[in-house]
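During the reporting period the student researcher (J.K.) took over the structure-prediction task from the postdoctoral fellow and processed the backlog of single-chain submissions. One of the processed entries is reproduced below for the supervisory committee.
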Amino acid sequence: MGHQSVVVIDYDGGNLASAARALEEAARLSGVSASVVITNDPAQVLEADRIVLPGQGAFADCARGLVAVDGLRSALDTAVGRGTPFLGICVGMQLMAQRGLEHGVTDGLGWIGGEIAPMEAPGLRLPQMGWNELAFSRSHPLTEGLGDRPHGYFVHSYALTGAMPEELLATTDYGGAVPAIVARGNRAGTQFHVEKSQTVGLRILANFLHWTPDGAL
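J.K. obtained the following structure tokens:
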């Protein structure tokens, strides 16, 4: 595997610097030669070897931010559509869904089934904030080597509902099963913040840097 260019998309979605630092650390720890760039330049997105979309805050705000930069949404669709490995983090994962119901109905990228709706967790505090255990639905290259009872760091009050079983890699329990990791083809996402999830997060990011999805270029 040669040198990789990894793009962290800048669309006012938040958490950019910490995501970039975590990717650089994951590359160093796993022996991958990678340059990580934070950018909203469509040309750089099209040329990237891997694409990461972080996000925090409201789905609608993030969705608007993505289309506010001329050519960015279409570059993302084109690059990922032709096989560039993609990882969405937190709201970045949520944007992969058909639509979001926060602050009105907003279209998502439409890459996975389901929609982003308010969490139902009777008797539990919302937003869900803190460490929670991951329960895996099936094996996948992104979740290799995570050890026994891995935990991710979550901060959210909206979650994916109506997920397709074949697109679900892991859930977490918070008043019921909550989708935690999704994947379809070369597109994957984590509801938790991998960049705040210490060794578990770094391993997932390292796995992403090594990942060769079926059909990826």
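The committee noted the following: Residues 114 and 162 are 4 Å apart (CA to CA).
J.K. will present the remaining backlog at the next meeting.
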